[in-house]
Amino acid sequence: MASTTFAVLTPALTGTAITAKTGVASSQTITFSVSTAQSTIDCKSLFIRATNTNTTASVSLSIGVGTEGSDLGIGAATVAVATAATVVIGGQGFDSSRFGTSGNTVVITATGTGPMSFEAYQKPNALE
Q1: What pTM value is reported for the model?
Q2: Which CATH code fits 3-12+23-122?
């Protein structure tokens, strides 16, 4: 299983260049982390955009259980991405205590043919 890391982008008034991780294939693990300019991943304001560019096969994304609140017993979450489709992950239920790790990351595993492309955004924290 291959893996890649991805820095979460924080929009700015002056604009932030969009960069996507592309070419994510079968059984790929994607670790989302903050850049040095950010303090923490805040799942309340984190959105992950996942695009399946394969026109014949769907992909399943598994959001890993975090280490910070995993004793809650809620578990991982699975998101289906249809062929040639895009989903946005986030919003209600996307909680740092459920999915955040002690290393301040969120981990997603893609299962399927792919390729996939990912982008991740969160609003600036008050101290940034």
Answers
A1: 0.84
A2: 2.60.290
